[in-house]
Design brief:
It holds the Pfam family Exo_endo_phos. This protein is α+β, with helices and mostly antiparallel strands. The chain contains 15 helices and 31 strands. Helix 8 runs parallel beside helix 9 and helix 13 packs parallel to helix 14.
């Protein structure tokens, strides 16, 4: 029999689970510091109670045997792996070691301390043929990469009936990610997962069945041709970066979106489960080292993107926007980079509280109308410092943002860029001197805007027209600068956002031209592909934006 002990240094108690010889399960919580003798005495009383209950069932036995109801307390001892009895004064935390043997009367239990265990196993709600199915796996004392996976499909009903039986057929797939073929359309899937810790210890398996059957996929997608350029991860001297506004569910599923913004898009293609299928396949197929995403719903990050991209070797970081349910996500390839530190800020908060922005804050105070608007915005900046796993002298400061959206908000965006550049300078010049910068995002700014000019030229004049983007009453004129030499790695495409009423270039990957150079830019989908279903999003493209992808190398 097994006696399972869960013991963590961070918790005051340990828990102990075992099944008594009479079949009753016991679950005990004991202080880690308590001497073993007291825990064993408690187990003995528990076991006697168990016997007592069994005895009470038979009145006849009680009448004949008199004290049968109060069964004798069994001897309870704990022996270490090498067969020596563990002394009763040893504290619980030290006594209950893996492989020890617990004796309760004649019964023997092998102690399993912190065995691998699954805490969550979930399949996505929507399954499409030809698109990867990535389960959400949460485990304790185990890691998804060491778990065992077995995939099953429903048995097709005999004689063409429409209800599949409860019989399951194992597929050849034994990987964490399973891509169903067209042959599985109409059938449900089942996954059996056995948690493992990488040290040949395995815990009890869990099974989960899909809520619905595999459905037919959309056929060709806008990203299929792009995947031809990104089949492999690029070499250690290079970095493949992606920036992509993935369209938050919060904005895609409103009545306004369905009827006014995207009336050309089939309603089912705006649903989050459908778009997630496309997104996971698209992102996995880019074999990227760095992915900066905007408009990421918190639940999408936690339940869908983080587990899926984790299976493809990427570690994710999330920063929510205050007031909204969406935010920014940065993913980096685990075997190429490790995370040194994070320096995320909300623009409005940083502007008010950080000494770094004191001067800008004082200048802004002269323009109360603009100041109020800037402080109302919930925009955030995600900054992560990464270090190369093969060459620790190589670090990267990766920034990710989504600036204010309003067409007349050019002046607000200039202030946001100023705060961003000061903050990035603090991280990449003061905290980690000489660290190259990659600044990705949806800047909501075309190449002719002040924000774009400020980032790429290093300065903005006080007479720039964007200071009056919302009319004279909201003019705020200042001359600002930053020390970086930044270049838009993917140039200035005709558009990165294509909806019914607008198309233009709003997204960029800015790179430090002193330290990095562009090796290749992955071509954007053709105009024909983008407009096949009139505009974006569509059944074959999950967002209203287009991902930017480029391969960079250290100079």
């Amino acid at each position: 029999e097994r006696a399972v002990v869960r013991c963590l240094p961070s918790e005051p108690k340990l828990s102990l689970r075992f099944v008594l010889p009479d079949g009753s399960a016991r679950h005990m919580q004991r202080d880690q510091a308590e001497p073993l003798g007291r825990a064993l005495a408690r187990i003995a009383t528990n076991a006697a109670k168990g016997h007592g209950k069994a005895g009470k069932k038979s009145k006849k036995a009680r009448a004949e045997g008199g004290a049968e109801g109060e069964a004798a307390v069994p001897a309870v001892r704990l022996f270490s792996r090498d067969g020596a009895a563990v002394a009763e004064e040893v504290p619980n935390a030290a006594a209950w070691q893996d492989g020890a043997v617990l004796h309760i009367g004649d019964a023997r239990y092998r102690v399993e301390r912190n065995p691998p265990a699954l805490t969550e196993l979930r399949l996505p709600r929507s399954l499409l043929a030809g698109f990867p199915v990535c389960p959400k796996v949460s485990a304790e004392f185990a890691a998804p990469q060491h778990c065992l996976f077995r995939w099953f499909r429903e048995q097709r009903p005999e004689g063409g009936g429409d209800t599949a039986g409860e019989a399951w057929v194992e597929t050849a797939a034994a990987e964490r990610v399973f891509t169903p073929s067209n042959a599985l359309v109409g059938l449900r899937l089942k996954l059996r997962c056995t948690p493992g810790d990488g040290e040949q210890r395995y815990g009890p398996a869990l099974e989960v069945e899909s809520s619905g059957p595999v459905e037919a996929g959309p056929g060709a997608c806008t990203f299929d041709a792009r995947h031809l350029y990104t089949k492999k991860v690029c070499g250690h001297g290079s970095v493949r970066a992606v920036s992509y506004n993935i369209l938050a569910d919060t904005y895609a599923q409103t009545e306004f979106s369905r009827t006014v913004l995207y009336p050309y898009c089939a309603p089912y293609a705006l649903e989050i489960d459908y778009r997630q299928n496309l997104l996971k396949k698209e992102l996995a197929g880019y074999s990227a080292d760095l992915i900066c995403l905007q408009e990421v719903d918190k639940s999408v990050f936690v339940d869908s993107l983080a587990p899926a991209l984790d299976a493809f070797g990427l570690e994710g970081l999330f920063r929510i926007k205050e007031k909204q349910h969406e935010g920014l996500a940065t993913f980096y390839r685990r075997d190429k980079f490790s995370l040194l530190s994070q320096h995320d800020i909300a623009f409005s908060e940083a502007l008010l509280s950080e000494p770094l922005h004191k001067e800008l804050c004082e200048q802004l105070a002269k323009y109360p109308l603009v100041q109020e608007k800037v402080l109302q915005r919930s925009s955030v900046l995600q900054v992560s410092v990464l270090q190369s796993t093969t060459d620790p002298s190589r670090k990267l400061c990766v920034a990710n943002t989504h600036l204010y959206w309003h067409p007349k908000g050019g002046n607000i965006r200039l202030i946001q860029v100023a705060v961003a550049m000061s903050h990035i300078k603090h991280v990449a010049c003061d905290l980690y001197p000489g660290t190259p910068v990659i600044f990705c995002g949806d800047f909501n700014s075309t190449p002719s805007s002040g924000a774009y000019s400020f980032i790429s030229s290093g300065g903005i004049a006080e007479d720039h027209e964007d200071w009056v983007s919302n009319g004279e009453e909201e003019r705020c004129s200042m001359s600002l600068s930053h020390p970086f030499k930044l270049l838009s790695a993917c140039g200035e495409p005709a558009y990165t956002n294509y909806v019914g009423g607008f198309h233009g270039c709003l997204d960029y990957i800015f790179i430090d031209r002193n330290a990095l150079e562009v090796e290749q830019v992955i071509p954007l989908p053709s105009h024909e592909e983008i407009t096949t279903h009139q505009a974006l999003p569509s059944v074959s493209h999950p967002s209203d934006h287009i991902a930017l992808i480029c391969d960079l190398k250290w100079k």
